[in-house]
Specification:
The protein is α/β, with parallel strands linked by helices and about 160 residues long. It is built from five helices and four strands. β1, α1 and β2 form a beta-alpha-beta unit. α1 crosses α5 and α2 packs parallel to α3. The longest helix has 20 residues.
Length: about 160
Amino acid sequence: MAVKGLGQLDQEYDGSNLRIGILHARWNKKIIEALVEGAKARLLELNVKPENIVIETVPGSFELPYGTKRFLEREAKKGKPLDAVIPIGVLIKGSTMHFEYICDSVTQQLMKLNFQLNIPVIFGVLTCLTDEQAEARAGLIEGKMHNHGEDWGAAAVEMATKFE
């Protein structure tokens, strides 16, 4: 069982001056909605203003890396750059190799975006073997696990403020 949260923090982080993007896939809607709400709730707890939480969608997890890049570019072009982005997706193993290819590709490309774009890109993609694992990690099964979206929201605020 995973430990809740990000471990012991070195300080309190304040997101009141941040603009955070959440880009989510639309596959596995019930799980995605819970994760987005968890991230959003944590951002609000850390003083990110509601109007500074920008939410956008893409079809699936495979589209998250390209969507993240274009999302950041679009917001910057509008003169409202994001300080961090949380791409959220859910991949659940099926009976083919599709799962492995998508997990590896999405993970590698999201990691690269941190360095290419010089902005925190938080890894908000669940890679689960079963629906039950995904539901537990989205906080949908009481007493089983916590909503990982909360961790991603906290990580976005920490990373955007710690190294500014």
